From TrEMBL:
Pfam families: FAD_binding_5. This is FAD binding domain-containing protein. It comes from Streptomyces yunnanensis. Residues 1-172 form the FAD-binding PCMH-type domain. PANTHER family: XANTHINE DEHYDROGENASE FAD-BINDING SUBUNIT XDHB-RELATED, XANTHINE DEHYDROGENASE SUBUNIT C-RELATED.
Amino acid sequence: MDLNTVLEVRDARQLASWRTGDAWLGGGTYLFSEPQPHLRRLVDLSRMGWEPVAQLPDGSLEIAATCTIAQLSRFAARFPAPAAPLFEQCCRAFLASFKIWNMATVGGNLCNGLPAGPMISLTAALDGSALLQAQDGSRRRTKVADFITGAGRKDLGEGELLRSVTLPARALTCRTAFRQVSLYGLGRSGALVIGALDPLDGSLAITVTAATVRPIRLWFPTPPGAAVLRGTLDAAVAGPEWFDDIHGLPAWRRHMALRLAEEVRAELAPHPSSPEEAAR
């Protein structure tokens, strides 16, 4: 779609000052998908030269905001970490054409803040932290699970830039389980649940997205029983936080999130030794 209110496109390397009507341009798959009458200038990040994905000396993984879905998928295919299959599963959750895969960016998906954003699902489930840079050059970090505050809402100031997302080394060693459901065969995610079992201490993190307006990440020191998981998830999500749109009613999303969370728990948790332990 043509953005006929945009008067200028500037290279982000040469930007002098931020002003009202500016927007960061990554892949542009969202910006050019619908009218943006408030925009006057796009600040293009495509020439920043950031390495798409880099493994840091401490073993953590830094994903640049400009990393495309195709680049992340190619990296994951040769990445030997136990959590690597989750990357491809979340990339596939886009259900998008190769054109979108080669243009859409990780940063753009996070900054849209949509409940069904699969890069939000991936990075929140692996305890990712977002690096944000203000116009004065100052930087801060926030957990991805806290960065998204609601449907389309995020903890991002005026002119603030999402520079990258870092996934800790320990999270990359986790065994993961992935479940996704949609109302349609090739539809937007109605509920997406990811489990991550830590091999070091046996703790279990279960993250719910798409069904809720923001990521819900639950952490258990040991894998819980079915009843505890259900009660904890129900208590963690207030009624209005179950998302409501054309892709699923809140009651259906809650039902599916609870069902998928139990499937994830059962896949990752050690088999209980008795029926009583299974119920706890």
